## 1
Amino acid sequence: MKAHQITDSVYAIHADIHTDARFEGIWPIPNGVTLNSYVVKGEKTALIDLAKDWAGSIGQFDQQLASAGTSFEEIDYLVLNHLEPDHTAFLIELRRRNPKAQIVSTPKGIALVKNFFKITDNLREVKTGDTLDLGKDTVLEFFETPNIHWPETMMTFDRKNGILFSCDGFGSYGALGERIFDDEFTAEEHAFFEHESLRYYANIVASFSSFVNKALDKLGALPVKVIAPSHGIIWRKNPAEIVSRYAKYAGYNTGTAPCEKEICVVWGSMYGYTRAGLEAVLDGIRAEGVPFTIHQVPDTDASFVLADAYKAAGLVLAMPTYEYKMFPPMAHILDLFERKHFTGKKVLRLGSWGWVGGAKKEYEERIASFKWTSVESVEWQGVPSQADLSLLTERGRELARLIKEN
Ligand SMILES: Cc1cc2nc3c(=O)[nH]c(=O)nc-3n(C[C@H](O)[C@H](O)[C@H](O)COP(=O)(O)O)c2cc1C
Ligand SMILES: [Fe+2]
Ligand SMILES: [Fe+2]
């Protein structure tokens, strides 16, 4: 595979990863993921970010560097926007082959280089506004963007070419294949990647939305022509698209943008009694014409539940009582909602119990700090009665109306 040329002097090194291994060891990537690194050439050559040695990508890396007219041995600067191991796997190898290459990162990034790799020399700390002159009018400028999504993260801007190397920011799941630029994909393909970028955001960035808002403010004044992230599509035709998408995502849990007028239904049931009650709720939602997605737990991996729940203004959470508490897979989902700061939702909770219940109490304690608006929840013993079903339909309608009104 050859490097992709972005301009006369800038290349993307691109690896498609298809693996059963999970992203961050948690999130499934059935559609793969890409790893992008970049070469910027002036008189000196900078390599921006590395890759993870998934799927033997070191071989691809060497080949693509060669096709960009360079090699590990010829790199003058290694810019590390982020020290997560998906962007540093070849660091020791690069140092071994080229001890002269200076490693450039934020002070916190350099501290991690020292701690993770025991590398102590030829390091350069950079802060917001610092620059690195590569010659031939090519200057890299650095912007600290802390907590997107690690504390040491920064973005690098090539002012001459207007390229923002944003590392994990503006990234997405989904392997790209031979095409890597936004103008090379159809509308249908973009719709697919849009969902993968939402899932990526909900899984790994959502906890840090307030920092995304700060970074968007900081970067807003830059004359960006191309957004070049470390995962996913390179935006050269319409970079505003991914920026506005991220602004929307960051707004879903900080209140700077509204959630979508839709409902995400998450349910679990041992013997179908809760499911029977849920059907009546869905009738009510349908009657009000509000769109909904529906996921059964634990069958659907939490990664996908998070994506749909994150963007939805409304949630329906349906689970029975299990050992005096909530059905455990739902407790796991609520735990993730809390960790990822899923605030501001409108929610209906329902479920069946057998002898004394317990799910309701645990649920209410669990969500007390969530800043959610709740429709009165519905519980029943065993199989739902006709009266239960009517009430459930009415509560489903109530939730749907709340979503429509806002
Ligand atoms: C392993 C297990 C634990 C349960 N624990 C409780 C409990 O602590 N309190 C209770 O009221 N019912 C308990 N039940 C009964 C269920 O909550 C009840 O059968 C309910 O109707 C199941 O709904 P479902 O078909 O949607 O799973 C338990 C059932 C099972 C199988
Ligand atoms: Fe990362
Ligand atoms: Fe990453």
## 2
Amino acid sequence: MFNRREFCAAAAATAASTAFGSRVRAADAPYDLIIKGGRVIDPSVRLDGLRDVGITQGRIAAVERTLAASATTTIDAKGKLVVPGLIDIHTHASRTAEGPGMVLVDGITGWIDAGSYGADGIEAGIKVARASPQQGRLLINVGRAGIIAEGDTTDLARADVGLLRETITAHRDLIVGIKARLSKGLTANDAEALRRAQEVATPLGLPVMIHMGQTESALPKLLDLLKPGDIVTHLFAPPPNAIIDEEGKILPAALAARRRGVVFDIGYGRVGHLRWDLVEKILAAGFWPDTCSTDWNADSKTTGVVDLPNCMSKLFSFGQTVSDAIASATVNAARTFPVFRDRGTLKVGAVADVALLELREGDFEFVDNYDNKRKGKQRLFPAGTVLAGKRV
Ligand SMILES: [Zn+2]
């Protein structure tokens, strides 16, 4: 897709042109909430500096060096980062009723469940998304049984186009795209499963997210089936279907996909999706992820994923800046689905979804999906969440 700078600039322009409404506010009127003295990093407006954030009626009312007016509630953010609420575009938060609440305390104010459910079980996911305190939406699995060990569409009869279309149409408010989990065991059905996903998604104007790396079909064949706005998750997957060849060159099909607006997402996960040597090669070739997601599950605290702030810290030792890491889970993530159109930013007028983070210095160890350790000197920790102006 675009390089990261264009990505941020385009998002900032979108945010600026969105009709946030313009209530006039007296300078000395009290705020409902002030987040005081934190280091505000908002890549959507290229801000990185000490600021107070004033919030009124659930929206950002002011971001200034100092706010003199009083507030009903004040959060002392000294020593902390204050960033837009985090958006995780690849989680499995809807697999348990507790999922949304568990990730909310990590700073996640918007999530996308990536294919936990197909048409047969979708009601369970719908129920969790509907009850979610923060915005939660679903990608429906192209396979009607959802995630199954043998491969979601190993039996191609499970990729039922009619049923898929019908289910999406019945839940257009909560189903925002389709997941084609092109995992091991699909044989050459992987391309057909993706073709069927597109057959339903394209006329409805919905994105498709593919799980890459473990396919039978060569990656270029699958990438060529992706349209602008589609998402490739697990971009750091190791061979035989990596996005980089043995000479260290990014596949032309991946470069072409990015140029036409396909989003490349991390999807950290736990098994088979990411190995540090591949991360090193892919980043050395200049191919940086657009978005950082966790592939979260309820047991993630013990799988090396831990939480989104931890995942956002994993590329620091490869040279990623703190601001770029934050962009990958805020403004860039917000651009992937229309439901997040006015999120991922702390612009005045935006919904006041805010994550507080601690950036700690020390000796940290980060694990890939093969139990390889990578040392780092900085790590982000969740330190508080404000959702629509209310402290969680
Ligand atoms: Zn997943």
